[in-house]
Amino acid sequence: MGARSRSFYILATIFGTFVFFLYGPMFAVILLAFQGPDGGLTFPMNGISLHWFADIFRPQSIGDIWGSFDRSIKLGLMVMLATVVISFLSGLAYRKRFRGSSVLFYVVIASLIMPSIVVSLGIGSMFELLGIERSWWSSAFGAHLTWTLPFGLLIMFAVFNRFDPAFEEAARDLGASGWQTIRHVVLPIVAPSLIGVALFGFTLSYDEIARTSQSVGALNTLPMELQAMQTNVTTPVIYALGAYTTALSLVVIGASLTGVLIFRWRQKRHGSDADKGMV
Which membrane topology describes this protein (predicted)? Predict the structure, then answer.
């Protein structure tokens, strides 16, 4: 193997710096969560223990950790389900041109370039104007969908652009109805991509702060509660909570990848190559 060029080392340094800034803060938080019982919020560590991982399950004087966690999980699941269903149906609809399709597309995508805090403030103000109480399951739910739906729609565009309509034509030639074609042909082929859309929907909602801040109402979600606790909590329990939420995110990613592998295994078992090139 010949000597590496100078550009290789420059690019490797840039990539290494990017990885450090991406994962360094996460490792610092997880490491500080193992502080001893007398440890503080900063280095150096004062002993090593699991004290703060257990302390998080005791009643806290500040913050509503488990209530906000419960709301974040429910909101994330609601957003995930709505994102998958609407993105899939929108992807099907956009396979054919219809009147106003371009305008509708730009309206949906526009929410990606609008400042998140402006979207949140607008939704919160609209609910107040209408005399409707803001809540995590109503106004915050809508605010999160303005963030997740454009991603889901773009993913489904990429999926259906590579979808071979010959599979649907074969199903119809064999007498399948429209619903049977969707249920037994289209859905199994695009299922791994729908799992990806679900993962996007849940994770984007679960850690969203800006679009939640003005639309959530009186009861915070977990990221909002963590932000509030940063200025009040003086123990590493907040780091333990960060470690738990990171572990939950990894579990969700792992479950999604497992679901994709199971779909592929089932298709190979039945000798199907219908999703070849789809994911």
Answer: Multi-pass membrane protein
